[in-house]
């Protein structure tokens, strides 16, 4: 498939996956936001919670 | 082995996520005081619950000024006692065991949730600040009547609460 | 430059058989899935709620044991023979493990399906997890054992191929696809020990009446010793295709061979010593062991996060070669009209979402919120139900022509099918996650309870149910379209113009991989040490507390006659009043 549609041949040294870095940076931010939301809002806000014996 | 600079960056990001997740959970345990169900109770023969001082009569028991113990038996397809009534503003410790198969004791819409395994006793302490009514469900499949296994937990206003003698 | 079947016609026949076993399971599993989704949302009911669990058992076992693992053995046979460029050592041996797996499936299926027929005194309504003291008919355990032994022999087959190849190519690196197969199989050998001990030492003798009791916490822990790595066993063939085929479909090359090897080594090391994270809310296991399991689990995120980068970068390489530009615009240059590409790309996208809910599941104390709620099936329908299943279906669009020599029946329908799966799963899984946060349990036949109602803060429970039902129905239609396409493909005329069965060379090749990565003995040893470290103390503690055969208790065959059920209810009520 590659040979039929490829417009240029990119070797190891002429390829920087900048698009991947951009996508994965967005994913990172999304994960951080969702984790904090799930832990501090959904979980800790869902009282009562099991706590230690006082 | 050469790793692309961008991938190294992501490797750092991934490690930060992992460490951050572990740190959050540790904060929940140490800072907030959320404890896990553990192995603090002795094992028990599920066929001999009748002989057991705690579980022969499933009940709510006052053990301190604002402290209550609740002994719960989960069995196909009910919880005993039902309803469970405790006063608001109290610390309630649940002791839950099973008379037959694996169940759970899960107070819907809260973080009170434990597996109930025959032979083991699950214990957890919960602070109930406000009056309210909660459904209790078994969320582990326990047989063909599993969907009918439910009970109620009623947290009563402090001044209305009265512990019935021999309640079970 | 030829199709797979031209080079390996005999092996292609085995792979076809494995794929068809897998697809039959998918058909049955999907049908039960549809019944379930409509039943538990109370939209269409053709069974009694008490039969829901027979359907659920069948759905679980057929989907995650038969569908996934039969497809896996097909893909792995393709990967080993293609990458070593040699046929299997003995076709008879290859067919024998296929037959053993098939026979095992039939044996397991008989007691499950007998659960629908009240006049047959046989059942296995124990769900995929078969937690004792719920008890299945012995045939259920025997069938599972045969199936697993079949997979062990399949692994032995691939190792034989590699050993034979190595003796002829002593100085060469293990070809990457074979490396992935071998590391996955080592992980599987270690993981299945748990289930082997659980069944052979405890559950089977117990179901035959040879031992009186079992320790429910012990057999449950042994199940989860196997139960987490099995999810990676489902996932690894999908990863293998993402690493080998997806870059090719995108018109690019794998970004890094060394990192792919690192990822598979990490899965071998970390997949097993984490199973206790399924037992965060179990009594009888100390908080310390749970915390250790969580730490291991969190580090197990690493190979998946690395995979996300490597695979996306490989796709991006394809897009750039096709003329793609910019930070995000290159995505438009990808071959979105190719069902094999689009299916895998959408599966990967959904895995990113499933990865997040998995991170939540891994967080120890947050399990109080989500454990055994509908959140959990919401999660694994994104992972095994999409990342794996949709990748398999997309892969089949390319692999089936390779092993049949026949062109795909309909490319547009294939493309539509992959998108439909994605849309259906978006509806179903999103609603399941949200329902889980309200405390709605998984594995139950009824949407609501008698004494109270689940309340939604945003939207309503009825809206969530509707989304689950719509999503589940779309998924069923998608599965039917897939199966239809496979069926028609099988009846197509052979063609001479199939794409060649070549896996393009990685950008950063195996010469760049440290040789130690191929030292399978070393990684096996470390994996075993990690498992011993993670499991010896918890298991010793469980046995020490409750004994090997538990503190007592009866067995509960799940199907009882109606009179027995009535008697049991009367008894328990009396017991409760006494």
Automatic annotation (TrEMBL), chain A:
Keywords: Membrane, Transmembrane, Transmembrane helix. It comes from the Archaea. The chain crosses the membrane at residues 21-41. This is Ba3-type terminal oxidase subunit CbaD. It comes from Natronoglomus mannanivorans.
Automatic annotation (TrEMBL), chain C:
This is B(O/a)3-type cytochrome-c oxidase subunit 1. Gene3D superfamilies: Cytochrome c oxidase-like, subunit I domain (1.20.210.10). Belongs to the heme-copper respiratory oxidase family. GO terms for cellular component: membrane. GO terms for biological process: aerobic respiration. Coiled coil: none annotated. Keywords: Electron transport, Heme, Iron, Membrane, Metal-binding, Respiratory chain, Transmembrane, Transmembrane helix, Transport. The keyword Aminoacyl-tRNA synthetase does not apply. It holds the Pfam family COX1. The chain crosses the membrane at residues 12-35, 55-81, 93-117, 137-159, 179-203, 223-246, 258-278, 298-319, 340-360, 380-400, 412-432, 468-488, 522-543. Its main location: membrane.
């Amino acid at each position: 498939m590659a040979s039929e549609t490829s417009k240029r041949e990119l070797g190891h040294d002429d390829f920087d996956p900048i698009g991947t870095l951009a996508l994965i940076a967005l994913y990172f931010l999304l994960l951080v936001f969702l984790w904090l939301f799930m832990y501090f809002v959904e979980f800790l806000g869902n009282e009562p919670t099991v706590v230690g014996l006082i | 082995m050469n790793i692309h600079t961008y991938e190294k960056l992501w490797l750092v990001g991934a490690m930060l996520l992992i460490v951050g997740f572990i740190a959050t959970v540790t904060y929940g345990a140490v800072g907030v005081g959320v404890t896990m169900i553990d192995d603090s109770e002795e094992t028990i023969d599920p066929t001999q619950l009748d002989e057991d001082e705690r579980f022969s009569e499933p009940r709510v028991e006052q053990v301190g000024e604002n402290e209550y113990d609740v002994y719960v038996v989960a069995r196909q397809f009910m919880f005993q006692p039902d309803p469970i009534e405790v006063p608001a503003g109290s610390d309630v410790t649940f002791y839950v065991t099973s008379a037959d198969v694996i169940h759970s004791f899960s107070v819907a819409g809260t973080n009170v949730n434990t597996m109930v395994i025959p032979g083991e006793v699950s214990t957890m302490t919960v602070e109930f600040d406000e009056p309210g009514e909660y459904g209790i469900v078994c969320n582990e499949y326990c047989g063909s009547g599993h969907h009918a296994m439910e009970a109620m937990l009623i947290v009563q206003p402090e001044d209305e609460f009265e512990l019935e003698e021999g309640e079970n | 430059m030829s199709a797979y079947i031209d080079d390996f016609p005999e092996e292609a026949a085995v792979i076809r058989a494995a794929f068809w076993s897998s697809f039959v399971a998918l058909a049955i599993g999907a049908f039960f899935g549809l019944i379930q989704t409509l039943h538990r949302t109370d939209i269409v009911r053709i069974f009694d709620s008490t039969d829901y669990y027979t359907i659920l058992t069948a759905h679980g076992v057929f989907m995650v044991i038969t569908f996934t693992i039969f497809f896996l053995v097909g893909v792995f046979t393709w990967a080993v023979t293609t990458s070593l460029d040699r046929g299997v050592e003995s076709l008879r041996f290859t067919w024998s493990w296929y037959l053993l797996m098939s026979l095992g499936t039939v044996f397991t299926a008989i007691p499950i399906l007998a659960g629908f027929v009240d006049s047959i005194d046989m059942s296995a309504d124990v769900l995929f997890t078969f937690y004792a003291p719920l008890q299945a008919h012995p045939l259920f355990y025997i069938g599972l054992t045969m199936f697993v032994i079949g997979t062990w022999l399949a692994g032995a087959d691939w190792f034989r191929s590699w050993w034979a190849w190595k003796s002829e190519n002593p100085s060469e690196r293990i070809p990457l696809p074979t490396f992935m197969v071998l590391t996955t199989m080592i992980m599987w050998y270690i993981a299945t020990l748990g289930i082997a001990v659980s069944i052979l030492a405890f559950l089977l003798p117990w179901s035959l009446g040879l031992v009186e009791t079992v320790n429910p916490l012990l057999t449950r822990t042994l199940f989860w010793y196997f139960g987490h790595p099995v999810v990676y066993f489902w996932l690894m063939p999908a990863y293998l295709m993402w690493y080998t085929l997806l870059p090719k479909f995108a018109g690019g090359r794998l970004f890094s061979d060394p990192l792919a090897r690192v990822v598979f080594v990490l899965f071998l090391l970390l997949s097993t010593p984490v199973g206790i994270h399924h037992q965060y809310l179990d009594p009888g296991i100390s908080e310390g062991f749970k915390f250790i399991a969580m730490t291991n689990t969190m580090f197990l995120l690493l190979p998946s996060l690395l995979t996300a980068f490597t695979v996306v970068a490989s796709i991006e390489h394809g897009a750039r070669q096709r003329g793609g530009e910019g930070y995000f615009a290159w995505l438009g240059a990808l071959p979105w009209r190719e069902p094999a590409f689009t299916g895998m790309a959408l599966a990967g996208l959904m895995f990113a979402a499933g990865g997040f809910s998995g991170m939540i599941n891994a967080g120890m104390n947050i399990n109080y919120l989500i454990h055994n709620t509908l959140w959990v099936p919401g999660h694994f329908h994104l992972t095994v139900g999409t990342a794996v299943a949709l990748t398999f279906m997309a892969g089949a669009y390319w692999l089936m022509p390779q092993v049949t020599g026949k062109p795909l029946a309909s490319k547009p329908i294939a493309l539509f099918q992959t998108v439909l799966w994605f849309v259906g799963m978006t509806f179903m899984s999103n609603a399941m996650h949200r329902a889980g946060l309200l405390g709605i349990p998984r594995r139950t036949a009824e949407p609501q309870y008698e004494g109270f109602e689940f309340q939604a803060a945003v939207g309503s429970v009825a809206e969530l149910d509707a989304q689950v039902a719509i999503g589940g129905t779309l998924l069923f239609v998608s599965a039917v379209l897939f199966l239809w396409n496979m069926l028609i493909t099988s009846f197509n005329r052979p063609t001479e113009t199939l794409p060649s069965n070549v896996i393009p060379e990685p950008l950063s090749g195996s010469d760049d991989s440290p040789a130690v990565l191929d030292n399978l003995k070393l990684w096996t040893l470390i994996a075993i040490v990690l498992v011993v470290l993670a499991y010896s103390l918890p298991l010793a503690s469980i046995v020490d507390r409750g004994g090997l055969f538990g503190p007592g208790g009866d067995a509960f065959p799940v199907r009882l006659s109606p009179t027995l059920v009535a008697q049991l209810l009367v008894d328990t009520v009396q017991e409760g009043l006494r």
